[in-house]
Amino acid sequence: xxxxxxxxHERKLLLAVDAPSLLHRNHHARAHTRLMDRSDRPAWALHxxxxxxLESIESFAPDAVIFGLDDRTSSxxxxxxxxxxAGRAAKDAELVDQLDxxxxxxxxxxxxxxxxxxxxxxxxxxSAATWASSNDWNCxxxxxxxDSFAHISDHTQVLRLINGGMSNxxxxxxxxxxxxxxxxxxxxxxxxxxxxxxxxxxxxxxxIGEKTAPVLLAQMGxxxxxxxxxxxxxxxxLVATLDSWAEETGNRRIGxxxxxxxxxxxxRERYEFNVKIMSGQDDxxxxxxxxxxxxxGLLPLDIDRVSRVVGxxxxxxxxxxxxxxxxxxxASTEF
Length: 335
Known about the structure:
Elements: E1 13-18, H1 19-30, H2 44-60, E2 64-68, H3 76-80, H4 93-109, E3 112-114, H5 121-134, E4 138-143, E5 156-160, E6 171-172, H6 174-181, H7 188-195, E7 196-197, E8 202-203, H8 212-220, H9 223-233, H10 236-249, H11 255-262, H12 267-278, H13 303-311, H14 316-327
Parallel strand pairs: 1-2, 1-4, 2-3, 4-5
Antiparallel strand pairs: 5-6, 7-8
Helix pairs in contact: 1-2, 1-4, 2-14, 7-12, 8-10, 10-11, 13-14
């Protein structure tokens, strides 16, 4: 692909939202409110998600928005690895109800959603990052899932939701990711595969964790180079490089120990397995048509639809905010 000719600050912006991530966080944070919609069904997670979406749209002023949803009927990853995410607590029935309704709520508003068959919201985020790069847009992914860090680039940043809401959540670009984790953005997937992910029930390579993996990748460049050195040079360059690093920085020598861990039975298989599971599918058709005004995902939205749909959640202040942010028109006091 040819280098971008548009300065980063002048590119259009795609906001990619991991909707299940927002719903889970808001369910646990707001369940005590017992907020019900006009049909007396649980709505606190939906309301919290919508408030955060409105805050992010107001803050980032995107040109298009896409919401990723999980396929809750089948999972390619679980078929490949039945123990995927095993050990997680069963979801509350009230959360499941709101997860099931989220797509219909967003579609009713006129926003763009995608539930990829057998896949997850993270695959939509991965595809959004690819779409942005291919179309010379910027992309901001909103999620609490660290897997999305693998999509950070000169085109894509990740707003990682943590306690404290949108305003206190870090917006990660390649420089900030390197500062936080000591890992270049292009190496994050390799770092995660080495470390493992307990929340997804994916053990890492034994003896290589969050402190050691960044050193290995920074000194060797990539795991491709690591495996090539092990295969064709018995790991001599790896040991020499890491021992040289230790001498220069005053750290203990770790070269021989790392080589032993990487060549232990099952280590490479574990790493490659994790890469396969963790890799997001990045070529989904998002259905975005930004050159056609009024298509789903583009702002502004229809004022009557916003009034009707958000009004159903039964919180007037949120309806007023939605009308202002999503339609660009003053809020109405009537529905």
